[in-house]
Amino acid sequence: MTKGKNGLTYAASGVDIDAGNAMVEGIRDIVRSTARPGADAEIGGFGGLFDLKAAGFIDPILVAANDGVGTKVKIAIETGSHHTIGIDLVAMCVNDIIVQGAEPLLFLDYFATGRLEPDVGRAIVSGIAEGCRRAGCALIGGETAEMPGLYAKSDYDLAGFAVGAAERGRLLPRLDDMTPGDVVLGLPSSGVHSNGFSLVRRIISDIGLPWDAPAPFAPDRTLGDALLEPTLIYVKPLLAVLRQSAGLKAMAHITGGGFIDNIPRVLPETLSVKINLSAIPHQPVFAWLQAEGGMSETEMLRTFNCGIGMVLVVAHDEAEKITRLLAANGQPCVHLGSIVARKGKSVETTGVLFG
Known about the structure:
The protein is an alpha+beta fold. It has 2 domains: 14-167, CATH 3.30.1330.10; 175-350, PurM-like C-terminal domain (Phosphoribosyl-aminoimidazole Synthetase, Chain A, domain 2), CATH 3.90.650. The chain has 11 helices and 12 strands. The strands form 3 sheets. The chain has a 6-stranded mixed sheet. A 4-stranded mixed sheet has the order 1-4-2-3, covered by helices on one side. Strands 6-7 form a two-stranded antiparallel ribbon. Strand 6 (214-215) and strand 7 form a beta hairpin. Helix 1 runs parallel beside helix 4 (118-135), helix 3 (85-98) runs parallel beside helix 4 and helix 7 (235-244) crosses helix 11. The protein starts with 16 loop residues before the first helix and ends in a 5-residue tail after the last strand. Keywords: ATP-binding, Cytoplasm, Ligase, Nucleotide-binding, Purine biosynthesis. Its EC number is 6.3.3.1. One of its GO terms (biological process) is 'de novo' IMP biosynthetic process. InterPro entries: PurM-like_C_dom, PurM-like_C_sf, PurM-like_N, PurM-like_N_sf, PurM_cligase. GO terms for molecular function: ATP binding; phosphoribosylamine-glycine ligase activity; phosphoribosylformylglycinamidine cyclo-ligase activity.
């Protein structure tokens, strides 16, 4: 046997097992705060468990989704503000599950970094746990990977994995039920959410604004803080609608691709959606981005949510009831338009964006 010449350790190569173990111990109570029927939210095993029967399901279909946060994570890294980026991570996954008519049940995360800093890791996981509480799902596991040489020391990336369930026969979209005259509702976003940040960062780089400068579109906040406003999680108000109304036919999460790419994913080929852009609540961040980037209306609509984070297709005679149910659960909505017979484009627009 050849003896090692230098007595190297894993820590000497840049991977600190003790730091990883310390982080796991430091987040146990945070993770436990996400427990729900079906999962005790304990971590440390080789896999997470979930009991569908204990969660009240009889004949469930599972729905799974995974996503990341994109280059928004660079703003968290560069500002040193890590406590909300985990909310974005959960939101991007669970919002994709609720649009299929399923209840998010469990979540797992993957956190990869060049050098594990336990305080940063705890802040990120605290945000993930907050997102899980907002969605009503349990954080049942995750993975922390320290990979020097692949990531710069302070850099990290995140991935999330969520699983939900719906009783058989309750999944959305209900393509065969959609007809011309169905109402299209929009749920306002909290801002840019988690898409388009490569373009956002390019615009800010071209302008030369530092992250700690007052945000031109929100002067009472720093630019970094305003852009890190987390993605809204729409799960709980939409579950209330699903449980109390049969009039919800389809939902579209407005992420990368905006209105133009996301809404057609839940429409039959024979139908289009007609949207009144003037009905979209005005959010100064989008008008500012359009002006500074010199972007066309079409480019805005296919890059950003432009102020609407979720689109609902509802039966005409249930629209008022669903609007009231959303309001009763703290979720405002706007009447964006209607479903029409398709003659050309799958998304037709009227009115003026940010007018």
